[in-house]
C-alpha cells in the first residue's frame, strides 16, 4: 500500500521501520529541526533522522496546513496516512476524503491528550495500551479501529512503558491496513461518558511529597515522572532525582524519613528507592548513592520547592 507517514517523536519509529519494509512510504512529514542540548545544535526529530537512514523522502513544514504543503502531501496519491506523535493538528482541508489513522498511546477513550502514557503510570493503572483511531476535529475522539492492551509492571517507569507500547504499533497498524485493503475496516465510536484527559506535564509537576501520598500513589507518581520532567526531591541538603521506586514492607514511621536501605515511609506503607540521579551526576543504584553520602540517612525527603 502506498502511504504517507506523519510523525515526529520516537514513539513512531518501530512503526515507521515496519511500514517501510512492508509497504511503500511515498512521503514522511515531520517537524522542523529544533535546537537541542547545551550547545543548542539544530537537531532533526527522531522520525526525520530514522527516515533519512531508511532513504525515505522527508519534508519538515512548520505548518502542515499551509496550502502549498496540503497540495504536496495530498499530491502523492497515498492510499492511507499514518499519524503517530506528530505534534500538529491536521486541518479538515488536509485530511478531507483521506483514510488517515492515528496510533495513540492509550486505551481510548481513557487518557486523551498529550501525556497518556505518563498519566496512566502516574495514576497507578494496572494496564494501558494503544488505539488506532480516525482523525477527528476533537483531540483523540475519532472512531476506534483496533486496540492492543499491555500490563504495567509495578516498578516500570513511563519511559519503559512508552517503549513497550511503541513496539505494539506495527502489528496493530498492519491489521487495520489489511482490513482497509479488504474493505472490512470498521471504526467504532468512543463512549464519551468514559473519556478522560491526559494533561501535558510541566517542570512544576516534577516532585513528590511523601507526607501527602500513600505508598501506592507515591510509587506510581515517581515512576511515571521518569524520565521527564523527573521527580526531583531534596534530602540532606542535596537535590536528587528519584528514578525508580517500588512498594516495600514496613511503614508506620514518620513519612519522608530516609532509612539506610532506601525505604521511606509514606502516609501509609512505604516505598523503597531503587535508582537515583544526584544533581549534575549520573544515574545510580540507591546503595551506591548512599555509600558516598551517608549524611542523607535519617533526613527528611522533601519536595523540591
Explain this structure.
A hairpin with a 4-residue loop joins β14 and β15. α1 packs across α7, α5 crosses α6 and α5 packs antiparallel against α8. The chain has two domains: 197 residues, 3-Layer(aba) Sandwich (Rossmann fold); 101 residues, Formyl transferase, C-terminal domain (Methionyl-tRNA Fmet Formyltransferase, Chain A, domain 2). The chain is 25% helix and 27% strand. It is an alpha/beta fold and 305 residues long. The protein is elongated, with a radius of gyration of 22 Å. The model has no long low-confidence stretch (mean pLDDT 96).
Any key phrases for this structure?
seven-stranded mixed beta sheet, 25% helix, 17 strands, 305 residues, alpha/beta, 2 domains, Rossmann fold, Methionyl-tRNA Fmet Formyltransferase, Chain A, domain 2, six-stranded antiparallel beta sheet, 9 helices
* Fraction in beta strands: 25-35%
Radius of gyration: 22 Å
| Overall tally of structural domains | 2
Stretches where pLDDT falls below 50 for ≥5 residues?
A: none
Largest sheet: 7 strands, mixed
Form type: elongated
Mean pLDDT: 96
User: Which strands sit side by side, in order, in the main sheet?
Assistant: 5-2-1-6-7-9-10
CATH level-3 fold name of the largest domain? Rossmann fold
SSE-based structural type: alpha/beta
Number of helices: 9
Tell me the series of helices and strands, N- to C-terminal. EHEEEHEHEHEEHEEHHEHEEEEEHE
State the helicity in percent bands. Answer: 10-25%
Q: Considering the protein shown, what is the CATH homologous superfamily of the largest domain?
A: Formyl transferase, N-terminal domain
Number of strands: 17
CATH class of the largest domain: Alpha Beta
In CATH, the architecture of the largest domain is: 3-Layer(aba) Sandwich
Q: Span between N and C termini? A: 53 Å
Amino acid at each position: 500500500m502506498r502511504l504517507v507517514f506523519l510523525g515526529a517523536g520516537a514513539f513512531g519509529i518501530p512503526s515507521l521501520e515496519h511500514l517501510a519494509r512492508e509497504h511503500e512510504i511515498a512521503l514522511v512529514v515531520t517537524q522542523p529541526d529544533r535546537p537541542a542540548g547545551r550547545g543548542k545544535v539544530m537537531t532533526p526529530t527522531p522520525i526525520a533522522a530514522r527516515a533519512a537512514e531508511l532513504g525515505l523522502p522527508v519534508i519538515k513544514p512548520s505548518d502542515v496546513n499551509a496550502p502549498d504543503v496540503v497540495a504536496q502531501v495530498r499530491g502523492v496519491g497515498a492510499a492511507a496516512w499514518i499519524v503517530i506523535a506528530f505534534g500538529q493538528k491536521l486541518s479538515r482541508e488536509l485530511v478531507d476524503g483521506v483514510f488517515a489513522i492515528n496510533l495513540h498511546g492509550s486505551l481510548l477513550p481513557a487518557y486523551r491528550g498529550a501525556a497518556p502514557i505518563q498519566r496512566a503510570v502516574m495514576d497507578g493503572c494496572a494496564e494501558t495500551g494503544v488505539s488506532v483511531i480516525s482523525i477527528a476535529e476533537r483531540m483523540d475522539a475519532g472512531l476506534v479501529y483496533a486496540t492492543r492492551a499491555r500490563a504495567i509492571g509495578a516498578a516500570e517507569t513511563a519511559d519503559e512503558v512508552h517503549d513497550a507500547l511503541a513496539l505494539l504499533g506495527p502489528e496493530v497498524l498492519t491489521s487495520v491496513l489489511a482490513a482497509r485493503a479488504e474493505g472490512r475496516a470498521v471504526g467504532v465510536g468512543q463512549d464519551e461518558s468514559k473519556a478522560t484527559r491526559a494533561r501535558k506535564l510541566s517542570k512544576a509537576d516534577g516532585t513528590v511529597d511523601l507526607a501527602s501520598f500513600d505508598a501506592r500513589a507515591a510509587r506510581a507518581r515517581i515512576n511515571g515522572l521518569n524520565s521527564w520532567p523527573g521527580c526531583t526531591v531534596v534530602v540532606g541538603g542535596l537535590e536528587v532525582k528519584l528514578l525508580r521506586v517500588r512498594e516495600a514492607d514496613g511503614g508506620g514511621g514518620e513519612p519522608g524519613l530516609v532509612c539506610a536501605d532506601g525505604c521511606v515511609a509514606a502516609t501509609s506503607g512505604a516505598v523503597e528507592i531503587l535508582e537515583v540521579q544526584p544533581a549534575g551526576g549520573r544515574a545510580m543504584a540507591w546503595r551506591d548513592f548512599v555509600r558516598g553520602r551517608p549524611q542523607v540517612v535519617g533526613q527528611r525527603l522533601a519536595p523540591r520547592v
